[in-house]
Each structure stands twice: as C-alpha cells, then as structure tokens.
Amino acid sequence: MVSGMATGPTDARPMQVRVADDIRGEIETGRYAPGDQLPTLDELAETWMCSLTVTRRALDLLKQQGLVVSVQGKGNFVRERPTARRHGIDRYSRTRWREGRAVLDAEADRQGLTATQVMRELAEVPAPLAVAERLGIEPGTPVWVRKRTTLIDGRPNQLADSYYPLDVVERAPQIRDENTGPGGGFARLEEAGVILSEISEESTARMPTTPESVALRLPAGTPVIDLVRTARDQDGRAVEVMLAVMAADMVRLSYTFPVPD
Amino acid sequence: MVSGMATGPTDARPMQVRVADDIRGEIETGRYAPGDQLPTLDELAETWMCSLTVTRRALDLLKQQGLVVSVQGKGNFVRERPTARRHGIDRYSRTRWREGRAVLDAEADRQGLTATQVMRELAEVPAPLAVAERLGIEPGTPVWVRKRTTLIDGRPNQLADSYYPLDVVERAPQIRDENTGPGGGFARLEEAGVILSEISEESTARMPTTPESVALRLPAGTPVIDLVRTARDQDGRAVEVMLAVMAADMVRLSYTFPVPD
DNA sequence: TAGTGGTCTAGACCACTAG
DNA sequence: TAGTGGTCTAGACCACTAT
C-alpha cells in the first residue's frame, strides 16, 4: 500500500527515500505499532516494485533514524522506545546521600527501576585533556579514575568515568575501593571534610563510536549524550570531573533553576 | 595502508566494517585532518581489494558516525566540527533582557557569533500534548504559538516553538508581533507584570526526522537535541513552554547549580 | 529445511563539479 | 569532457531463526 505522501510522476526523491518515507508514514499513523514485524524485504520489494537492494537501503535509512530494528533470521520490527529515565538535579540532594543512597540509586528507585553498576577500571592514570582543563591541572598529571558502567533493569545505559585529584583521594581513601559504601563517593568526600557546593554539567549529543555502540548495546540510529560533570567544593575548587556517555534513548536530562539576575 | 587494528586471518568483521574502522583510525591519528579529502571510492576499493559497493558501505558507516561528509561530484571529506555554541543558564539573566538584549543575542554575542532568526509561524493553534501537560491545560485548548528558526552565522541551528496561554498573550500583546522589541518576549512579559521566577529545561537526543534534517541542513550522522523549556511565574504557573530542536553539533548545554539540600 | 536478513560482486546509468 | 559520488539492478552466497 502506498501512503498518503505526494507521489506525483515528477517525484524527485530517489526510490529508496520514497519507500522509507512511505514506511515511516505507516509507522507514524499507527498502521504498524511498536514491536510489530514489518513485511519481509522480499514483500516490500514486490509492493514497491523495486529491487531488493533498494528495499534494504530504505530499511537502512529507517534504522538510522531509530525507527526500525532488524534481527537477522527473524525480520524487521518497529522499534520500541524504552522509557526514558530522568536525570534531575535533585538527585544530587545532600540529604539523599546522607541517608545512604548514592546518586545513582536516588535517581533510579524513584522511578521503580533497578540500577546496578559494574566497575571497569579503578586506577591512577594521566589526566585526559577535558579533565585537566576542569581540574585546573596540566594534562597528563596523575589523577585517580573510577570507570564504571551503569545498568538499568539489566541494560547498560551509561559509561561513567570519574576523575579525582590525588590529594582528594588521599583524604577520602574509600574512593579507591570498588564499593564506596552507603551514599557513594559524594558521601565519603563530605565525611572527609570536602564540602561539595556547586555542580556544573555540560552536555552535547553525537553518534557513538564503535566501542560505545558495543558497550551500550545501542540499536542503530541511537545517539549518545556526552556529559561532563564538574563538582566543586566551598572554595570553588574542582574535586571531581565525570565524563559520561549515555544511551540517548534511555536518558532525559532535567534542570530547574530560578531566573538569575 | 592498513591501520594498526588487529587484522588476523580470522578477523570476523565484515569487510565494510574493517574498511570503515581502518579509515576511522587514519582520521583519529591525524593521517587525514578535518577538511581533508579522502581518496576516491575507486582508490579505496583498490587499496582494500574489495568492490566499489563495499567501499561505499564503509563510507556510509563513517557518515552515519558523523566523521565524514561527501559532496557529489567532488569527493569525501573528513568532517569539520563547527564550534559548539554554549547554552548557559545565565542567558536567562534578568539584567540582560532589561538591557534590551533577547535571550538569543545574549548567548550569541558573548561568543562573537551572529545570531538571527526567521519567523515560521505566528498563530493561535490547539495545544500539542507536551505543551498542554506542562501548561496544565487540556490538549487541544487554543494557545498562541511563535515558531521560529534561529541561525548562527547563517546556518540554521535551532527550530524553536514557543507556546503561550491566551490570557498571557492578552496581557503582553507584543508577543503576537513578529518583532517583540528590545529584550525579547521575556522583557514584554515582565513589563506586563508576569514576573518570571523559575525555568526548567528537559532534554534528550535522537536522530532527526526528514523535515528536521532539511530545515537544519544537518549532515548525515548528526543527531538533534530535543529540549522542552518551561518558564513559570512567581505563583508557579507555567506561562511559556518552548519546544526546541537543535542541531547537536552546534550546541552545548551548560548548567551550573548549587548542591541542593 | 525453509525463510529471513546480511554481505558482497559486477556493472549500468545518472547527477554534480571542475577545468 | 573527465572525474567524482549517487542510485539501482540481478544475483550469489552466508548467517541466523524457526519448525
């Protein structure tokens, strides 16, 4: 079936784009619902009277747009969107971590989701450029890093690498442990007298690199949010820089603030 | 030239992925710099001893990842990343718009960029779902909308649609005009006694739809940031909801806030 | 074993750019 | 006009899923 799109004799769009647009239309109007299997490539090729290759290209376009996922040997399916998790600023609430809940859990359990994390690396490393800039040190200066993967209901959704100046780690040595204890790293910092007072987050979005696609098990057509968080103490000194790469389809960032003067 | 990637006899990766990975490696190591032209498809096919089609697929993968752009009749080029524009929360500073500068300009001229905007629509329309939810009204209730495209140094970088409840527009009727005057819409609201006190922004990222790609002239492999801004007055009532779609490669969101209690 | 999507080839023809 | 990338075909063969 051809959709309602303009399809005059002088339609300048390449066939592959027309097919993709038509199928997209059928998805958007609900003709195919999330999770539904689309007709096979052969069927689509016959319907649009074009070659298999063109049909494939059309599906490729839809996969890039995040509308379709394909499973070898089974078929092509309308993508089901996972419920996006909110990252609100109140997850940094001091009372929360004083109650023994880490930032990660604070966010998750409010939404009935199960958050877990897997440690990937715990080591002293030379500071990468983005980290050095924000910590106010020379790139390459040794810093402590905690690299972890966080998962929501079993699906990895974030690669988070936290960097700390060495003297900060000296004061709160539990940061070197795999498990930082109740309330997480921020709670240990406060206990050690490092009073966090300001957080800043910078974010942008881009397509994932190949290793990121694999690590986050990203379906084609899913971008990542690239977030840099800097935590500062009362003197304005940066005591932690976190570089995070998040699966965009599982994250919603949220910020509320008074209108500044 | 084959890169340093593992390329044993049992390399399970499909040829198109190997070629893409190798070229990506040469870009990342600086062998090809941003703006450089890559070898032609024919040359690449010869180098890797594979068909033209495979070479094309490899380049497609790189384009999807935002690393390469191609220009018909000219060649394939390493993508040059535009300098990402920062969207800091101080662009909402009240003193700025009191001085006659709109939020848009406040952000741009601090960075030596030229911001312009083109009005796309100015009308009374039924409230879309996302807007109605935040304004606390029924979907379909009439609201006033200002749809505009903003451009930075001539390139469109944002589609921004602002929705206002009708009674707010009554109080600040300049919102209905194409040009809202010095300081922009927020300044007119304040003059009319609608004192903005809180702003919240929610954002996520996704791949663009076809019309968005066209309107923002997005290169392949560029996601968009989907941002919803809600502005509230002193009573906590939402007086404006903005739905914005931004070219991710031209935007960096930035938020700084005290650690909440 | 049949049906599905994934990879790959060889080659025709079109559209755009540049000299 | 020569060179480049874009579209499209027809068909071989592989890999995975189901029965």
Description:
With 261 residues, chain A is α+β, with helices and mostly antiparallel strands. Chain A has 9 helices and 10 strands. Chain A has helices at 15-28, 41-48, 52-64, 94-98, 103-109, 129-135, 166-171, 184-191, 210-215; strands spanning 68-71, 75-78, 85-88, 115-126, 142-152, 155-165, 196-206, 224-233, 238-247, 251-258. In chain A, the strands form 3 sheets. Chain A has a 6-stranded antiparallel beta sheet with strand order 4-5-6-9-8-7. The longest helix of chain A is centred in the first third of the chain and has 14 residues, at 15-28. The radius of gyration of chain A is 23 Å and the shape is elongated. The model of chain A is unreliable at 1-10 (pLDDT under 50). At the A-B interface, β7 and β10 of A face β7 and β10 of B. The first copy, chain A, binds a DNA duplex (19 and 19 nucleotides) through residues 14-16, 40-42, 50-54, 56-57, 59, 70-76.
